[in-house]
Write a structure and sequence with these properties.
heterotrimer; A mainly alpha; B mainly alpha; C alpha+beta; B: mainly alpha; 2 helices; disordered N terminus; C: alpha+beta; Immunoglobulin-like; 10 strands; NosZ/Cyto_c_oxidase_sub2 (chain C)
Chain lengths: ~550, ~40, ~160
């Protein structure tokens, strides 16, 4: 039996979703979208303050809501949505329901992460943790803020083990078959996450927690920063890979086509495993304490992680073109007209793909060693990740929500909901055009990120930036309308009319194109990939990190400067 | 002959290739723009 | 594993482009002295103001129109508070922090470095245009972060 046959048929896509698993998926999405709403409130306030349009009441600090925005959006919205989405697809494609033990792991992870989220949010609201979501030492938050992060990360680990368990069970019961593409990619994503979070876990458990409790007096800054960024870059691939899963697996089905190449899709995820981790120094290019040659080596490795995205770009266009031509499209770009522009399940993720073109180009600029001086810690970087995570990833996740929520509940995606989804997507794009466009431009002029309203004593440079900050505030306000509409849409999706076999929303799982060759078995040699990754990590980090350990800079006492 | 043509038309990925080349060109131009700015500062 | 002919061409072109970028920045960094800020030069953050050369922050002439600039980035300001640099001067910046992590960015230039407590960061820049340059902190450092700025006058 080939991989293609093992993957879901059209009938499988429509088959009702397991009721128990539906609760687990929805529980994750509820926290995700609540975080999005709260994070959105924080975001619009920031935009208006920086644009000089409002002033916050004295009890609330700008940097406090900035911390809330970053934590809730970048860590909580993404992680909860991703785990909910992955569990849904794993249940769908690997057995039709989660094993009892997997379901229990999913719930255990959910409870831990939710407890961590609530505890962390309380700390931020109490102004005990105004350290931003990167929590750079020696800014010292309340120890319980770090403990809250431990809850979130450990919870996500347990959820990851659940996915691995279901995958192993499937492999054991389907000897000789290639696994479903969704399962393969879910495992790859969670593998990146498990290996990446080791860095942040070490710095939080062995440096931040003992130091914030006062058990040790000092903290080594460069070691903590290096461990953080060992985690910080693969973090962004942990956001991106599930979006790519939607593109590779779901989009072909939605547009009525086939997956261009199952093998190449898997190969791109293998490359993400190998190259998304040993690259953290490209966030530390402007720092002392790291020899230039090691910065450059990690810059080279960073450029290698561009390759799977180049592959993905080709695969997406090829899927669109093949589908269009099968429908009779002619000419160079005739296939564009055959795409289902009026279907939010396609439209929102497609716009995400389109935005990834400038987002990716910006990323290559950021990582270009000395050129990073042009953009480091300026609003350009904020503009950059509002394209990557807050548009490419977010719009793809929104697009998924429009079918995932009704599907797990056996409900319909009504034409009205679909229309609201299209409107939501357009609002998002307009808001982001103004906000991220201004951020990129004014960032190149030098305006710093993470800074409250200021004109630096009316210095002409800073005065010149103000109109851009106003445009950011306008864009941010439009985006806030988009957040509210998305939250309302999510509630409406949960209350949509029941569907039957014909009308219920389907879980779109694409089939591989007939012409594509069978997937080679070696692609699932996880041991090999992890082995190569370990070698790459040791190569990229042993000497520079060893130097930090052997010749440490004097440590720092804790500081609370807010 | 005409059947051959339509088959070719069906399997071609020339639109895809043109699209990714445009994408590559966009990346190169953006990078070059910032590089020139860097050199001039 | 089968890869479409056009995909092979695309990947070859794309990867070649990446290596051209890497080549350009590699040659710039290692052959033409355009390295990012660097240095592994440690200092006790609690003793910055007693440690040479930061016990006397400011400009020190080291050659013909060539200077060392020793600067301290602290919450929430810079020492020295005002600095004048002759036009065309080559300035070797050395920056550190006695408290939390700060940024040291001079707008309109390529000077953009992290001031990390425990380390001294180094970067060289030649001021070819006259003017009053804005120096600001671009790394969040606390409640007064947005007030942390100074100027360098080049004339």
């Amino acid at each position: 039996m080939t991989a293609t046959v093992m993957q879901a048929s059209a009938a499988d896509n429509k088959r009702p979703f397991d009721g128990k698993d539906a609760k687990l998926v929805l529980a994750h999405l509820l926290v995700a979208f609540t975080a999005l709403l709260l994070g959105g409130v924080a975001g619009v306030l920031q935009g208006l303050v920086r644009g000089g349009m409002i002033e916050l009441p004295s009890e609330i600090g700008y940097y406090q809501i900035l911390t809330a925005h970053g934590v809730l959006m970048a860590l909580i919205f993404t992680t909860f949505f991703i785990i909910g989405f992955l569990y849904a697809g794993v249940s769908k494609t690997m057995g039709g329901k989660l094993l009892g033990v997997v379901s229990r792991m999913g719930w255990a992870g959910y409870v831990l992460m939710t407890v961590g989220t609530i505890l962390g949010t309380i700390m931020i609201l109490a102004n005990e943790a105004t350290v931003l979501y990167t929590f750079y030492a020696p800014l010292k938050a309340n120890p319980f803020f770090y403990i809250a992060l431990v809850f979130v990360v450990v919870g996500s680990w347990i959820s990851g083990y659940g996915i691995f368990t279901q995958y192993r069970y499937w492999r054991r019961t389907h000897k000789g078959s290639v696994s479903p593409l969704f399962g393969f990619m879910a495992v790859a994503t969670m593998l990146v996450w498990q290996i990446a979070t080791i860095g942040v876990a070490i710095t939080v458990l062995f440096q931040f927690i003992p130091w914030s409790f006062g058990w040790v007096e000092k903290i080594n800054i460069m070691i903590s920063r290096t461990l953080f960024w060992y985690f910080g870059h693969p973090l962004v691939y942990f956001w991106l890979m599930p979006a790519y899963m939607c593109w590779y697996i779901c989009i072909p089905k939605i547009i009525g086509g086939k997956i261009f190449s199952d093998s190449m899709a898997r190969l791109s995820f293998v490359l993400f495993i190998l190259f998304s981790i040993p690259v953290g120094f490209h966030h530390q290019l402007m720092e002392p304490g790291i020899a230039p040659v090691w910065k450059y080596i990690q810059v080279v490795l960073t450029f290698m992680v561009v390759i799977p995205s180049l592959m993905t770009a080709f695969a997406m266009f090829a899927t669109f073109e093949q589908t269009g031509r099968a429908k009779g499209a002619r000419g160079l770009f005739g296939w564009l007209k055959t795409l289902p522009w009026g279907d939010v399940r396609f439209f929102a993720p497609f716009m995400g793909m389109l935005v990834f073109i400038p987002a990716g180009a910006g990323g290559i600029i950021n990582a270009s060693n000395q050129m990073n001086a042009m953009v480091h810690n300026t609003l350009w970087v904020t503009g950059h990740f509002h394209l990557t995570v807050a548009t490419t990833v977010a719009l793809t996740f929104f697009g998924v929500a429009y079918w995932l929520i009704p599907h797990v509940l056996g409900k319909q995606l009504t034409p009205r909901m679909n229309r609201l989804g299209i409107i939501q997507t357009i609002i998002w794009l307009i808001g982001m055009f103004f906000m991220s466009g201004s951020m990129h431009t004014v960032g190149l002029f030098g305006s710093p990120r993470r800074t409250a309203y200021t004109t630096y004593g009316d210095h002409p440079d800073a005065v010149f930036w103000m109109p851009y900050h106003v445009a950011m505030a306008i864009g941010g306000t439009i985006l806030f309308i988009g957040v509210i509409l998305m939250f309302c849409n999510m509630i409406a999706l949960m209350r949509a009319p029941k569907g039957d076999e014909k009308t219920a929303a389907e879980f779109p799982i694409g089939e591989t194109a007939d012409a594509a060759e069978p997937t080679p078995k070696w692609i699932e040699r996880w041991g090999v990939w992890v082995g190569v990754l370990v070698v790459l990590i040791l190569f990229a980090y042993t000497v520079p990190f060893g130097d930090m350990l052997v010749n440490p800079a004097p440590g720092s006492k804790p500081w609370v400067t807010w | 002959m005409s059947r051959d043509r339509s088959d070719k038309e069906k399997d071609t990925l020339k639109g895809t290739f043109t699209s990714v080349m445009l994408l590559g060109g966009f990346i190169a131009l953006s990078w070059l723009g910032v590089f020139i700015l860097f050199i001039n500062r | 594993m089968h890869i479409h002919r056009l995909e092979k061409i695309w990947l070859a072109i794309g990867v070649a482009m990446l290596f051209v970028f890497l080549g350009v920045i590699g040659v710039g960094a290692f052959a033409m002295g355009m390295q990012p800020p660097t240095g592994h030069h440690t200092i006790d953050p609690e003793k910055v103001s007693e440690t040479y050369p930061f016990n006397n922050p400011g400009l020190e002439q080291v050659g013909e129109n060539e200077y060392n600039a020793y600067m301290i980035a602290y919450a929430f300001g810079f020492k020295p508070a005002k600095m004048e640099v002759p036009l065309g001067a080559k300035v070797h910046f050395q920056v550190t922090s006695p408290d939390v992590v700060h940024g040291f960015q001079i707008t309109g230039t390529t000077v953009n470095l992290m001031a990390v407590p425990g380390e001294v960061n180094h970067y060289t820049y030649t001021f070819d245009k006259p003017g009053e340059y804005l120096v600001l902190c671009n790394e969040y450092c606390g409640a007064g972060h947005e007030f942390m700025a100074t100027t360098i006058i080049v004339k």
